[in-house]
Design a protein that fits this description.
five-stranded mixed beta sheet; 5 strands
């Protein structure tokens, strides 16, 4: 509905997140780091500025021969998303052509960068 669109625009006035493209799949030398959030969750709201900074640093970057894409997706608007798990709150997954690695550390730039270096 038009109301949802207005809410999204209002919520992300200062932040521009890269949404997962429709029919997205990783190519052989690509990887995607995906932030799964719920627009109503306070912890997610607090994580968005950090994720925006992480996205700006890493989207399109090459790490160990792989091109990294950094995306986000609102699981409250995509309820059948397997990456979101069964818990509300921010989640980060590194998606390759044939595998998914879940991030389980604190949400800060240093930890996220180490996660990339270790898993790519």
């Amino acid at each position: 509905t038009g109301d949802d669109k207005e809410e999204d625009t209002e919520y992300f006035t200062l932040e521009h997140l890269n949404n997962v493209p429709k029919n997205f799949k990783c190519e052989a030398n690509d990887a995607a780091c995906i932030f799964v959030y719920q627009h109503y969750n306070q912890e997610c709201k607090e994580s968005i500025p950090l994720w925006k900074k992480f996205q700006d640093i890493n989207h399109g970057r090459r790490i160990n021969g792989k091109k990294l894409n950094v995306y986000s997706i609102d699981s409250s608007k995509n309820p059948n998303l397997s990456l979101s798990g069964n818990v509300d709150g921010p989640r980060v997954s590194l998606v390759g052509r044939y595998n998914v690695t879940e991030y389980d550390g604190r949400m800060n730039l240093e930890n996220l960068e180490n996660f990339l270096e270790k898993n790519l």
